[in-house]
């Protein structure tokens, strides 16, 4: 009879160890799943940031082209034909760095964090 009780006790101990191992494995799987989800969101954020940079650069180029088109009209309106040339589509940043690390530019403040 004692051997049967010992066997039952062994089964209970084995069952408890298995249960704990399964719980630990489940927790590790959830942690790994969370890491995968975080990595996925980070990748999406980086892609969105790169896309935003591309759109901002394209907008700046179009603004420079627009300014270049308007420059000859302004020169004719004011009679200033002094040989000034445009930047021919190159994008020039008008940002100024300050001692506090911040910069001022012609880019809207809510978009400047993407630059």
Automatic annotation (TrEMBL):
BP terms from Gene Ontology = embryo development ending in seed dormancy
Q: Where is this region: Disordered?
A: 1-33, 49-115
**Classification via Pfam families:** LEA_1
The annotated regions of Polar residues compositional bias extend over 84-94
Coiled-coil ranges per UniProt: none
Q: Which domain of life is it from?
A: Eukaryota
Compositionally biased residues, Basic and acidic residues? 1-10, 17-33, 55-81
Q: Which family is annotated?
A: Belongs to the LEA type 1 family.
Listed name of the protein: Late embryogenesis abundant protein, LEA-25/LEA-D113
Q: Which organism is it from?
A: Artemisia annua (Sweet wormwood)
């Amino acid at each position: 009879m004692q051997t049967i009780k010992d066997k039952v006790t062994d089964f209970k101990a084995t069952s408890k160890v298995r249960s704990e191992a399964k719980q630990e494995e489940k927790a590790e799987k959830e942690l790994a799943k969370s890491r995968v989800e975080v990595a996925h969101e980070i990748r999406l954020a980086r892609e969105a940031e790169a896309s935003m940079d591309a759109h901002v650069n394209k907008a700046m180029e179009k603004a420079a082209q627009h300014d270049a088109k308007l420059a000859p009209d302004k020169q004719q309106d004011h009679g200033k034909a002094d040989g000034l040339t445009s930047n021919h589509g190159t994008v020039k940043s008008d940002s100024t760095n300050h001692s506090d690390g911040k910069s001022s530019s012609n880019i809207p403040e809510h978009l400047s964090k993407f630059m």
